[in-house]
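Quick one - inputs below.
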Amino acid sequence: MPDPAPDLPEAASRRFASGAFTSGLTVPDFAACLQMGLEPVGYVQGFCVMQWGWYGINSPYRRGLTPYGGGQGGYMESWQCPHGFVSAEHRSWGQNYQQSWVENAWGQGFGSAYSRMLEEAVALGAHGVVGVVDTSNRLGDLGVLEFHVRGTAVKVDDAPGPPGGQPWTTYLAGQRLAKLIEAGYMPVSVAAAVSSVRVWAYCMTEYLLEGTNSSWGVAQAGAEITQVASAQMAARQIAREHVRSQMAGDSLHGAEMVVSDRELGQGDQEIQCVLRGNRVRRFKDFDPMPVPHPTVRLS
Amino acid sequence: MSIGNRLGSPAGEPIDIKAEMRRAVDSLQSQTHTKDSMTSDLSIDEELNLHSIGWEPVELVCGVSLFSVPMGVWNWGQGEITWASAAYAHAFEGAIARIHRECAKAGGHGVVGVQVERSIHRHHIDVTLLGTAVRPVGAKRVQADQVFVSDLSARDFTLLQVSGWQPLGLAVGASFVYAPRRSIGMAMQQKSQNVELTNFTEAMYAARESAMERMQASALSMAGTGVVEVKVTEGPMDFARHAVGFAAWGTVVRLAGDTHRTLQPSMVVPLDDPSAAFEATALRGK
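Output:
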C-alpha cells in the first residue's frame, strides 16, 4: 500500500490499515463491480466548510454608486431606464452580472472536498472511486456551506496504477457503470461547477414583477420580463461553460442541473445553477447496438 | 446480470466485461482525446437507445421565459382571465423560442427529454425548459425554426421513430377562468350541505375546453396529426382561490412515412423476484 497522503488524519490511516473494507455500494452494485473486476477497498470521503461574505472586498454590492460598475469579468448586461431622471429612489438602471467570487468560493470548497476524498483513495492504493455522491448543506444561517464528497474506492484486478497517480471517479456504480463501459466510454472524473448571477432590477423589471404600469405609459404590464429571463438563461449557460472547460475534449454524461433563486430585495435576486455529471472518454469505436426489441411484461 | 451479452457482440456471444473494464482503464494511460465533446443529461440506457436508431446527443440546452401578469386581473370577475391565459402562452412561446435557438446553435435537430417547469405567480408566469439536443449521427446543422422540442424521453423518442412517427414540437394550451359568485342566499343555503359547487365545476369545464382547444390548435399549426403524452394540471391558485386554471401540454407527432409500422412486441415474464434484492420485508412475506 502506498504511503498515505501527508495531511490524511492519523485515525483514517489506522482505519485504512485495519484489513476490512468498507463500501457505500448496494448489494447489486457490489456484485456488478466484482463481475467487472473492481474490488472495493474503502469508503472514502472528503469535507470542506466554506464561508464567504456578501459584502466582502470583491463584492460589488454598491447599488446607487455606479450604474455600470461591478464587472469582475464574465457575463454582465445593463438596462437603462426609459423615463429619464425621476427621483433618487427611482431605479434608473439595472444590471445582471456574474458573481465570480461566489463561483470561485464554491469551486474551492467542492474542489477541496473532492481532492481530500481522492487523497484517501490514493492512500488505499485505489485505481478509481465509483458511486460518488456529493452534497452541500448550509450550516445554520451564517453564510457557511459544508461540502461533503464520498464514494467507494476500487482497485482493478492486475491493472497498473492510475495515470499521474490520480484515481478516476464517477457518479455511476454497478450495472450503470458496466453499461457505460460496454458502450465504449471510460469514466475520467466527476465534473461539477456552479454559476451565480446577480440581478439588480431596474424600474421596468420592478414594474413588471409587481404587475404595475409605469405612470408615464412607457411600461405596460403584460410583457416579457427580459432582464430576469436573460439572467436565468445566463446562469444555465455559464454553468455549462464552466463544466465544458473541465472536459478537455471529453464528454459530459448523465448531467444534472439544479437551479435555485434567492430574493435579496424588491426585484433583486441571486440565481445559482449547479451542474454536475460524469466526464467520460470514448475508448473504443462507436458500435451501435441493434434496435431494441419491444417487450410486454407479464407480471 | 444481463449485461454480458448485449452490446457490440454477435448475438449470443457474451462480452467479457472484465476484459472490457481493463481495456477502458488502460485507455486512460494514453492522452488521446476525441474532438466530438458533448454534454447530455441522458442516462446511458437512453443514449444507447438513441444510438440504436442512428441518433446522438449533442448538448444540454435550455429555454427560460417570464411573462408579466398585470395587477388586478385576478380580482373577482366573470369569464376567462384572458391576461393570465395569454401570459401563460407567451411564457411558453418565449422559452420554446430560446431552446430552439440553443439547439440549432449546438448543431442539434431536436431536443428530447425536455423537463417542463412552470410556476404561476400573482404577477408573472415562469416557464423553464431543459433537455438534450440530439441529431442523426454526423448530420448537418439546421435552422432554429426547423428543430423540434419534445418532452418524450429518449426511449420513447426511439420507440416513436421505430414506429414510423416523428415529433414536431411541444403543443401547449392554458386557460384561467373565474368561478362565478354564488348569491348570498345560495351560499348560506349550501353552507351546511354536502352539495356540488356547480360554479366551480362549470368554471373547470370552461377552462378545460379552452385549454384543450388551444393545445389542439397549436398541434394543427405544426401540421401534426396528434399529441402524445398529454399532461394536464388544474385547480385554483393559492393567491386566487375564486379562479381555476387548466393547462395541458404534450408532444405533437405525425407519421414520417405512409403508414404506421407495427412493432409486434414479445411477451416476457420477468424473473427478478423481489426477494432476490434482499429486502427483509419481502422475506417476511409482506
